[in-house]
Amino acid sequence: MATLTENANWGTELWDQYDNLSIHTLKGIDFLERYGHFVRDRATIESEYAYKLRRLVKNYQPKKKDEEDYQFTSCRAFKALMTEINDMAGQHEVVAEDLQANVIRELTALVKDLREERKKQLQEGQRLSQSLQTQIESLQRAKKAYDKAFKEAEKAIDGFQKADADFNLSRAEVEKHRANMAHKTQTCDQAKNEYAVQLQQTNQLQRQHFRSGLPEVFRQLQDLDEKRIKNIKNFIKGSVELERNVFPIINKCLDGVLKAADIINEKEDTLLVIEKYKSGFQPPEDFPFEDLSKGGSDSGSANNLNNIQLGSKIKDGGYTVKGTITGKAMKKRAGIFNIFGSRGLTEVCMAIKNAAIADGKEDLSELPPNQRRKKLMQKIEELKTKVTQETAARDGLMKMKGVYEGNPALGDPRTIESQLNECSHRLEKLQQDLVRYQGYLDEVVKGIQSGNLTNSVTGSPRLLNGSSRIHRNSGGSAAEENSLSRSASDSSVTNTTLNNIKRSAPGTPQLNHGCSNSPESGLGTSHTSLHHADSDQDQYDGNHADPESEYYEADVLPAIGICRALYAFEGTFSASEGSIPMAQDEELHLIEVDQGDGWTRVRRINGEFEEGFVPTTYIETSLFNT
Length: 626
Fold this sequence. Notes:
11 helices; rod-shaped; mainly alpha
């Protein structure tokens, strides 16, 4: 290999290796085709990898129910990481597409051209070899004829010489041998000349074959093989260049992943947990010492024990520390929540036109103060955005109406009036909602600033958005009524007020801690008590009547106005549900106005005594003049 120079070629060095060159070029083209299959399979892998990356990102995208958790920096970083991974998948798709378009397609075309060119050159070599073989066969025939003629000529000469030396033969016979000798000699000379001509032609054709014809074929095959090898080199470099072109973007994606990791802040996340779950209540105060040796303290002790049990009942699925109802107790009170069944829920949603929050109440009173403030601020921001949009839309319509009025040829201004009225109504409704939610927010802020929000486990004061009343029981004991404000800013209940509530006759309800004010809960304004004392025990021992089944009739409240049903409402009247049905255009007495929860308390005018709650949006009211 070291003795060969770059000028060495197949035509001169491999003049006798036609078959081996034919096999070598075939293997070379097969190798090129195999490399093409490799690139094609690699492009397929790149495409599949990109698809699996995208699918991976899709599978780990946050669900709608988990979107709230993505306010934490670690979750936001993970979401940004998935975005960068998705972009990286796109770059792998680019690599696959470029390999298909710039490498595989050209490589396939090259393989086809090389096979055709090789076939053409091999056919030319076969033609040249066949021509030389034919000439060699002609030379062999001429030589054979010359050899035969030479032998016959020698035999004829020998016969003539013998006949000329034999005196017994006649002169005619000698002349006959002379003529035969001359003929054979002439034939031999002709065969000799033919042999010489064929020999000259054969040598000339052979020199041409091995010095120009076949070397040219081998040179073409060498160029073909060099072209194949050079293109393999170019294809490899091209593949690398295609990948390098996407490296800057992939590096940017990786930089994006690093930036996403840099935004993770453990302190910020832990503070967000405080922001997310902080209730705004103050820790409970110390339990007071009850000296049983002093008279009149058993009631307070019982009240304290009841308050303790109220908080502890969460273990049994009863009430949480806030005095609300847990999921297990919720199942037991199917009657109370039946109004939110499939048909009832549809009616309520249609009635309030999606004004209520998904948590249950429009004013979010069931949430702790701090969380309520946060949700109300979010709602106010949404309403402000909508007000801005509607204001811009109204201004645009007014400008368009002015243009139409100035130039009637452009359009009829009356066509804008209906749209303008609808827009104005929507804007008015949004502004009313904004004022209402701003009022809710002001109440919460005032309540938080007043510092009267404490945990209700120990009976300490706690402001609730609802009423808790003690009414007269069936035994005729005196009714004590103590209403908590519907918002944190209206009022606060002190320990003194709670401790002044004494145990009465059997069945007398104790003060309700943490009930809601909506009729669907069966608590609060529906005069339902959560706890009552046992008449046989001085302290609460857990064997009291089921709080879900205790309801007490209130004193008949006076009507404060008249209301008329705009729509029919299919409510159900029972002690455990709190709503009543009404027909369209039916008139009822107004007992209690809507306190912000979307329900109004009414009483039927005619027929038997029926009192309950109806959706506020289903009625129009008229208050009596006082």
